[in-house]
Specification:
Layout: H1 2-7, E1 11-18, E2 24-31, H2 34-43, E3 47-54, H3 67-82, H4 87-97, H5 100-114, H6 119-125, H7 131-143, H8 146-203, H9 212-226, H10 228-244, H11 246-257, H12 263-284, H13 289-296, H14 303-317, H15 322-326, H16 334-346, H17 349-410
Antiparallel strand pairs: 1-2, 1-3
Helix pairs in contact: 3-4, 3-8, 4-5, 6-7, 7-8, 7-12, 8-9, 8-12, 8-17, 12-13, 12-17, 13-14, 16-17
Length: 411
Amino acid sequence: MSSMSQSAQPDSFLFIAAKADGGKAFGVRPADDEGVLARDLGREKLILLRSYRVPAWLAGGQGELPLKDQGEATTQLAALLDRGVPLVESLDVVAEAVSSRSRLKVARMRDMVSQGRSFAAASVETGAFDGVTAAVFGAAERTGDLAGASRQLARNAKRRLKIRETATTLLFYPLIVLTISAFVGLFMLTVVVPMVAESMRQMLPQGQSLPIATEIMANAGMWLRTNPLLALGVVAGVLIAVIVLRRPALAFGGTVVRTLPVAKDLALAQESARFFSVMAAMSTGGVPLAEALGVANQTISHPRLRDQLDKLRTGLIEGGVLKVLIERVGALPLATRRLPVAADRAGDLDSAFESLAEDHTEIVDRQSNRLLAVLEPALIVLIFILIGSMILALVVPMLTLSRSAFQGLSG
């Protein structure tokens, strides 16, 4: 699958085009050749004047459609195909419904389908959808229910957007608090602490010095004031290291999250919601359970859950019974394990998976609110450690000086 995608990657062109009002348009676009580029620009009422082949990375937009566009595209496909609109014409409408950055990719899919390629193959070769979504489209084309699969994928995209928004909200609050605290702490360290420390040094009796903690903070603040470029270079180096090592850093962060008391429940709920959404889409397309598990398991990054689900799939392929095998998936709650068994007996697995996806999306909301409730006092403690330590470093010597002055007056 990856080789197909790579071989189908278009070239990139720097182009100059004429607008309808006589003006000029410039840009970089991916296209198979100059003829395709001219046709793509023509859809936007632009006339290609000149083009130059450039490195592919300059064009950008080579990845999947943004999740919002995926949701809009599958929603439109489901509505149009349900009404009997041919797939090629449906893709024309979809190209107008998505954002401008996704329009060309949908247009390329439309061209491939009009030339006889399957929709699943076009979605893979253009890179518009991930492998899991393309597999759902492929299964739906085999069963003749592309509209149903599109409808299910649209619901899946909406769930993923909701989970992403929840995660963004969860990160946004502590990020704002920590950013404000960092600026306040930096101001105190570079301005307030050195100034107050210098004043206290002048008030100290000869031979006495400030406490070690106060001296360290004052010296650190003065160093930052006198060496701002070097400090910025250190920060930039740390950021570059984080970017370069982002994969192991993210893997380590995921391991830490899965061990924290509240965060681990949220991480499992997110993984489960994504898994059951894919299972619902695959089941709706008539894909056998073992095959659907093979695709859905690719979306799981939780090591324990993925290992148990892989064993479940292997057991089903070897002729095992779902009722017995699913009881070994201890990472899922008991009620979650029992529902697919009952649905399998009733022959309604797709509804069960859909219900489980909705339930786990709601669990993500509840667990996110619970985690926020835990983060608030934790952030207060962290702010006290960052800023309170500076305040204490100033207050302690002040109290010492005040006591010494009072004793001097008393004497």
